[in-house]
């Protein structure tokens, strides 16, 4: 069963969870052939019920010791732009769509998402453009991010975030 896994990490990003479970977004997900939607909602106040999205299998949880199995089973990962979540999805070789939380102040998520997008490792959008991005995205343009080089990722983050 083709699966979309959505993660917000340890944060709260209710706007993403609310947006991804709207009927319009679920329709866009279904139109791409996905049949299952798994949500990791973190500290957020929104925890959708299994029957809240008709026509798609929905599972939601707050936290697990590890989301590695959820990432492994996913055909598409939709994530907040946290470095750890991005690295886990890219390291697992998964297609990654990052949703930047544009409501955060002093937000370095956008710089990280833009840089990883420039290098064709992920696609990114905001909650307001998520549905349209799902409708029009071309996952075939994504290039693997080679795992096993943590120092390269650390340098990459330093450069992307302007830390020298």
From TrEMBL:
Keywords: Endoplasmic reticulum, Glycosyltransferase, Transferase. Gene3D superfamilies: Glycogen Phosphorylase B. Signal peptide: none annotated. Transmembrane segments: none annotated. GO terms for biological process: dolichol-linked oligosaccharide biosynthetic process. It is an enzyme of class 2 (transferase). Residues 3-143 form the Glycosyl transferase family 28 C-terminal domain. It is found in: Endoplasmic reticulum. Its EC number is 2.4.1.141. Pfam families: Glyco_tran_28_C (PF04101). It comes from the Eukaryota. One of its GO terms (cellular component) is endoplasmic reticulum. GO terms for molecular function: N-acetylglucosaminyldiphosphodolichol N-acetylglucosaminyltransferase activity. Belongs to the glycosyltransferase 28 family. This is UDP-N-acetylglucosamine transferase subunit ALG13. It comes from Cynoglossus semilaevis.
